[in-house]
């Protein structure tokens, strides 16, 4: 995924990804940066300052456990010393990057598994369908053959939205009447993808948590039926999370882990709130790969997750010079 991608929802002016990321995370970074500045202006790193810092990190949705670890590490090297706000933010960015680096793994179809079956799960409203569409467009533009399955069969809007993305990406969409059996649709879609010798099949799913047992039974049936055609599928089961839910994202991970074997995460709407820190606590707790993050509606606003860029943006810092950019 590159900055050269175009989107019908954005104007002709292009912004670099780091700039879009910083702008998207501005609410989160302002909250953390202002909190850190208010604590550490002309002040030593003492117990009281550490306690206040921990509260700022928790308020930034970094989570109590992760916040305690980060402040303890800061104290280990700087306790009793005069510290500047930017120094604290830089140290915290490095710590966040270290936590996030192991989970930063792009989503790439495995050519040895054709079609590479991606099952997208998550509660309604997280951006599952749009995310599927954006990946379909990018992969199709790269020359991969993609099939989409409109598996959220109870939401007409989701089916129509996926059809629009299918037209935009020039890829087929397997859909049935509203209320149709989602597992049967998934079976038909995989059968078509196999017959068409497609590279990728992406399956949208329902996300109605009002009746968790029904949703669990439906998702598990989808997986069982897919395995009748390919016992190794789905090859990726991706949970799409809305960052504006903050720490509620943890409970969504727990719920969907109980339903299906989640292999990775995509986090959307990081521009919608001051809760970007939740990514750090998710990485610390679950260690699930984070494939991509979204900071807007445009196709270029969903990009592979870069731990260093994200951590520095979260703390309101400029991008770090990379070797290839140095004179």
Task: Kindly describe this structure.
The chain is an alpha/beta fold and 327 residues long. Helix content is 48%, strand content 12%. It has 12 helices and 10 strands. The N terminus and C terminus are likely disordered.
Order of helices and strands: HHEHHEHEHEHEHEHEHEHEEH
Radius of gyration: 21 Å
| Oligomer class | single chain
Shape: elongated
Structural class label: alpha/beta
- Terminal CA distance reads 26 Å
Helical amount among residues, as a percent range?
40-55%
Tell me what the CATH architecture of the largest domain is: 3-Layer(aba) Sandwich
Say how many strands there are. Answer: 10
- Output mean pLDDT: 90
What is the name of the CATH class of the largest domain? Alpha Beta
- How many helices? The count is 12
Strand order, biggest sheet? 5-4-6-3-7-8-9-10
Largest sheet: 8 strands, mixed
- CATH homolog superfamily of the largest domain: P-loop containing nucleotide triphosphate hydrolases
Outline the low-pLDDT stretches: 1-13, 323-327
Quickly count the domains. 2
Determine the strand fraction and express it as a percent band: 5-15%
Question: What is the name of the CATH topology of the largest domain?
Answer: Rossmann fold
Q: Which features does this protein show?
A:
single chain, 327 residues, alpha/beta, Four Helix Bundle (Hemerythrin (Met), subunit A), Rossmann fold, 2 domains, 8-stranded mixed β-sheet, two-stranded antiparallel sheet, 12 helices, disordered N terminus, disordered C terminus
